[in-house]
Amino acid sequence: MSHPRLSLALDAPDALPDAGTIALWNPAAATDLGDLPRARVQAVQGFAPDHAALSARGIDTRPEPEGPYAASIIFLPRAKAEARAILAEAAARTVPGGRIWVDGAKIDGIDSILREMRGRADVSEPIAKAHGKIFSFRADGGLLADWSAEDITPAPGFVTRPGVFSADGVDRGSALLAAALPAHLPGRMADLGAGWGWLSAQVLAREGVTSLDLIEADHAALACARRNVTDPRAAFHWADATRFAPEARYGGIVMNPPFHAGQREGDPNLGVAFIRAAAGMLSLSGTLWMVANRHLPYAEALKSLFHEVEDIGGDGAFRLTRAHKPIVGAAKAAMASSAVSSAVPPAAKPARRRAPRPRR
Question: What percentage of the chain exceeds 90 in pLDDT?
Answer without folding.
Answer: 85
